[in-house]
User: Fold this.
Amino acid sequence: MPNTLYLPELREMLAENDEAGLREFCTALHHPARTADFMEGLAADEAWDVLRHAEIPLRAEIFGFLDERKQVEILQAGDRAEIAQLIGEMPPDDRVDLLNRVDSEIVAELMPLIPAEERRDIQRLSAFPEHTAGAVMTTEFARLSEDLTVGQALQEISRQTEELETIYYLYVVDDADHLRGLVSARQLVSAMGKPNTRIGDLMQRDLVTVRVTDDQEEVAQKVARFDLLAIPVVDAEHRLVGIITHDDVLDVMAAEAAEDAYRIAAVAPLEKDYLATRLLVLTWKRGIWLTILFFGAFMTAFALDGYQAVTETIPWLVLFIPLVISTGGNSGNQSATLIITALSTGDVSLKDWWHVVHRELLVGVILGSFLGAIGYLLAVVMAPDWRSAFVIPLALVLVVTWGTLSGSLLPLLFERLGLDPAYMSNPFVATMTDTVGILIYMSVAQALLF
Assistant:
């Protein structure tokens, strides 16, 4: 919810063109995120009129905390020269992401106005495929030579600081930018008492790195696993081309979680915010999967039609069809969700498939037996005799076991094929489990009652 505390005052200052008041507002809250928070209720043109009263570096910082839709609106409506100046001040990865959301015609107008060095950087980062490490990295990082002393390194870092996004880690490279090692800012400060110590004697050499072509989800997993504040990105020749900081990793994890949530619900991931997505696009992304699931559900009806003689002869079996197939579908959904989550966090890999099968087989038998016992008590009431009622518990054991096995193995199969396991979403698992569940249920009924 927008923070409306300053909105009347802001609009009054804008109406009166109170430059001193607007400049004070941009600096008074001490953190750009809080300033952006108090501007949420403003229209895009009003927000830009406020930002124009901040110094350009601060303007870029505040702008970076505005919501994406407002950023795009400002970019599309603002003065091209001023917008180009703003883009030049933004972090490299952020400005590339922003330009990717703007109409290509406007980008073509802005690019010639952006300073040459920043323009080349944008073009270089834009060349990397989406969702790779190269597409989310920043090219602003601290470089040091291993031949520098601690005293010289401190002077060099003080010179570079104004242009850097972070100085948690200081990367040691040779003349060709090959990554040689790393010195943390803490190490450097701790060594101030020995100013003649070489950086090469301080640096860590065994580094965790990623390639520019690595998937961003793998990058996030590495950063989380090794508890890093940033991770270096290297090319095929081990040249340092950028770094990915922890805040960018958080953005990646949020984006990946959102995509997985969409796929688990059988919705194609949205490229824009829900409200910014056009109605026809939203309908298509939902409709295509609903159509596939529709035909999958038809297979269930087709399977049931093959046992029409059984259901007509023993009508009480029909009453338990929803119970049996929904229990199987729910057990499959649980297994699919557990395995998809475990794969995304790295807790499970393809080499663990046999352990997964063993565990899910046991879980399926245990859960099926427990639910089967409850189902038998219900079936005794409706079945003609206690022997006939055994159809229900036996079917439940088999259907639940099938659900746990299929729900766990299908995501692993997708992972093996190089596809996102989240595509094997709960609706797909439920549809497949329903069809096979009908076949199991009716086969058990035929075997026991005919």
Notes: The chain has a mean pLDDT of 87. Residues 7-127 form a domain with the MgtE N-terminal fold fold (CATH 1.25.60.10).
